[in-house]
Every structure is written in structure tokens, then in C-alpha cells.
Amino acid sequence: MNMTEMPALSLTYQMQSPTKSTSAPPLVLLLHGQRSNEADLFALAPGLDTRFLVLSVRAPFTMGPDSYAWYRVTFTANGPTYVPEEVESSRARLIQFIGEAVAAFGADARRVYLMGFSQGAIMSEAVSLSRPDLVAGALLMSGRTLVEVAAQVAAPDALAGLPFLVIHGTQDTVLPIHYGQATRDLLETLPVSLTYHEYPMPHTISAESFADATAWLTAQLDSD
Questions:
Q1: Do residues 90 and 123 make contact, with C-beta atoms less than 8 angstroms apart?
Q2: pTM, rounded to two decimals
Q3: Which of 40, 157, 191, 213 has the smallest number of CB atoms closer than 10 Å to its CB?
């Protein structure tokens, strides 16, 4: 397929083609945070390894004009509250979308990476831990682990060696650093390949954290 074509898939997305046409390019899906949209993380696409086919995906729940979410969440004094059924719906839709994207673009099903920020990181973890057969690695930026995710973790042999990069800011007031550390602690109990970094930043993607993220993704391709 001509990579300039934009086939209609079950979720809206923006696309950046790899610089060289290959029969089966590696694929990275960018998953934005709550009340954002697919254009947000797509701004990072030019900084990613040019071998990737990049799809920045819009979450399915509309919150307002150009504002979407993977599930509805309310921030309270006791922490975020959310609708578990919407988490599961979005997890299922992302699993479906991965299959659609691989088929539509002829991408390499063995080299599909998820890169999510905030709520997008939460969904990246949910898909990766429950369906490691579909994912070659996950990059989790400023997210957290939901109870439902921990309950859906695949068997240890299915997770063996699956690469994860967890990035979190020590000055994050939206999802404070203890959420990132809790994700680290869970992943350390699993037979995955975990890299964990903390940065002196708020709930954002800094130049330093992005540089480390892109280097990690490139290293995954180079190790294939």
C-alpha cells in the first residue's frame, strides 16, 4: 500500500510514514492523555526514529471540542475516580485497532510499540500486559496502573522479556510520582524487561525525557 493513503479504521488517527518504503515497517502507536486529541502527541512524531510508521490515535470518548478521553475520570481529594467499563471498552478497541492497522498498512505485527502519555500510558500498559502477543514494547509516560489492569496480567511466560520504559516527573501534581513508582513496583514483579526513569518535571514531556524515550525506541528496533 502507498503509505500516503489513509484507510478508514475504527479509531481516528494521524499518520507519519517511514522515510523508506519497506514491505513490513515497524509500527508505533501514540496514545494521548485525557481531554487531548491525536494532534497532541503527533507533534512528537518527527522526532521518532524514521524507520517507524507512526499512528497517533484519537481516544473514543468525546469530552468537548477537540477533547477526547480513553475513559471518563474525575480528580478528587482521594485520588482519581473513573468508569471501569470505559477502560475495558477502550482496551478492547485498541486491541482491535492494532489488528486493523497492521493489516491496513502491512506493518510488522512482531514490531508494534505503544507510546502513551498520562491516560494514554495507562491504556498502553493495559493492552501490553493483557495482550503481550500483540505488542513488542511499551513506553509509559506519566501514567499509573489501574486495579483492572493488574487483574488482567497475562501468564509469566507470555510476558518474558517484554520491554517497558516507564517515565515520570517528580514534580507531577496531576499523577504524583508515587503512581509511577507503583507501576515500577508492579512491573518489577513480572518477567518483563523494565527501564525506569524519574525526571525533575511536572505532568509533561520534557526535552530530556523525550530524548531518552526516542533513544529507547530506537534501541528496541536495533535489537530486533
A1: yes
A2: 0.95
A3: 157
